[in-house]
Each structure stands twice: as C-alpha cells, then as structure tokens.
Amino acid sequence: MAVRGKVLIVEDDRAICSFMRRVLEANGYESIIVGTGREALSMLTSHCPDVVILDLGLPDMDGMDVLTQLRAWSLMPVVVVSARTDEREKVRALDAGADDYITKPFGTSELLARLRTAIRHTRTTSGNASIAKENRFIARGLVIDYDKYRVYIDGRDAGLTQNEFKLVALLGRYAGRVLTYDYLIREIWGPNKAYDNQILRVNMANIRRKIEKNPAEPEYIFTEVGVGYRMEIDECCGRAPQFFSCRGHEAGFKTIDNFMRLSRLVSRLTEI
Q1: What φ, ψ does residue 156 adopt, rounded to 5°?
Q2: Are strands 150-153 and 142-145 parallel, antiparallel or unpaired?
Q3: I need a surface site. Which of 126, 210, 231, 248 has the fewest CB within 10 A?
Q4: How far apart are CA 53 and CA 193, in angstroms?
C-alpha cells in the first residue's frame, strides 16, 4: 500500500495514541507520536509531517501555543482533537488556524474523514480547480497524483522520494506562480533549515533528473534566477508569473517589463 502521508500525533494519552496509530497505519498513513508540546515543536521542524493531529490538553503547554507557533511559519494542516466541548474553545482553535476540530470520543470513520478533509483543504486553497476536483495535476506528460502520493511522467512512476514528492506537489498546487526558495525550504524542511539553499538545490537536481527529458532545458519546473521555482502550466503560457513568498504574500506582475526589472535586480544573487 502506498504511503498517503506522514501524520504527527501530538497526544499524551497512550490508549488514544495506540488507537490512532493502528487506524492510520491500517489506512496507509505513516505516524509519529509525541506526548508533549515541546516534542511536537521539535518534530514539526525536523520531520515536517503532512498533517498534524493535535491535542490541546498537553502536560507541558497548551496545544493552542503549539498551533500558534506552527502557524508562524507553515500552513501545514492541523486537526485538533480535544475533550474540550465548549463552543468558544472550538472557535478559538479554528480562528488560530486549525483546519478542523474533533471532540473526544470519536470514531475511526470520523478521524479518517477529517484527515482527508484537512489535506483536501490545502489543495482547494491553492486556487487550482483541477487539483481540488480530481486530486491530480496534469501538465502534458507530467501527472501529480495527490491521492497516491506519486508523480508519473509519460505513464511511468518517476520514483520520487517523499521530500521530492512534497516539492513537486507544492509547486503543482501553485502552478504558474514562483515559489521563493525560502518558502519552499520552510514548508518542506521547517524553519530550522531556513536559507539552507543547498538542501533545496540537491533535491531539485534529483527531481529534474527523474522528470525532465533534458534537465538542462526543463519543460516542467523552471528556475527564476535568485528568486525561486515555478511549475509550468499550459494556461499560463505568455503570462508573466506571480510570486509567492515564505510569508504567504503574493505580488502579481502584470507585465513582462515588471518581471524583467525584477530579474535584473536579482541577477547578482546566487542561482540555485
């Protein structure tokens, strides 16, 4: 069974942890379990899971503090699981950036459905209608299958590693936009690797060897010198790219002239 994603379970109740691990692994998810907020913050930056299941009642700190610190650098999906039934607590968690809220006790089907919804939410917020509808991104011979966690090139599995898939999946989600180096590094490897362009360079070189016919003349993933990477889409041909920074702010460049000015400005920077 293909691994659907890595789930970080932040929960101090061993019985609940054991239950969730069995359910997740039986349904194709890899799970990591921690019992404190400090452990969670460490794992978030070192392992960068695909989804977080977060209990609010942790022994060393409130789960809301974990959520707040995570949202300072990532849009990683978070499903809150808590015994707190007060409506104000739910609203507070959702306002702080939680993607969903489950009240204990809960069943297997509900847990899996909420996880799928949280993951799907990250797709629909990208503005890419085809991904939201079909869970796939298609650009000529390239197919990113978000359900199977696979990338296919001309019908064959490209054989990407987990982090390589995450990079391609993120670029596909925002196809046509330039994702800055810093944004990509933070989303895949966490804030502790910020500005470590070497790790991104190595992974991108491996990706291009696997999906491009000629890595020196890419068809799918393009480098915007000194800024970041962009996934090509057929619809955007002839349109100046948009930029997506690590802070989530977008700056649309409506004309080629504006883009060329930016390119000249950053041409002195080191290209990945």
Answers
A1: -105, 150
A2: antiparallel
A3: 248
A4: 23
User: 3-state class of 175 per DSSP?
Assistant: coil
- C-alpha span between 155 and 140 (Å, rounded): 11
H helix intervals, 151-245: 162-173, 181-189, 197-211
CB neighbour list of residue 194: distance below 8 Å, 6 or more residues apart: 182, 185, 186, 246
Number of domains comprising the chain:
2
Residue with tokens 């000249």: 264
The verdict on 252 and 230 lying in the same domain is yes
Whether residues 85 and 178 share a domain: the answer is: no
1-10, 47-56, 203-212, 240-249, range with the lowest pLDDT: 240-249
- 134-173 pLDDT, tens digit each: 678 888 899 999 878 899 999 999 999 988 998 999 898 8
Residue 102 included in any domain: yes
Is the pTM here over 0.90, yes or no?
A: no
pLDDT for residue 122 is more than 70: no
* 226 token code pair: 């000194």
Q: Which residue has the tokens 């010198």?
A: 225
Residue pair 187/233 in contact by the 8 Å Cβ criterion: no
Residue 69 in tokens:
């610190």
- Same domain? For 94 and 134 the reply is no
Residue span of the structural domain in which 238 resides: 129-266
- Domain of residue 173, CATH code: 1.10.10.10
Q: How far apart are CA 171 and CA 143, in angstroms?
A: 12
Check whether residue 41 and residue 64 sit in a common domain. yes
The CA-to-CA distance between both ends of the chain, in Å, stands at 35
- Structural domain ending residue among the three candidates 96, 124, 152: 124
Alpha carbon distances (Å) from 103 to 21, 52, 89, 114, 115 = 18, 16, 11, 12, 14
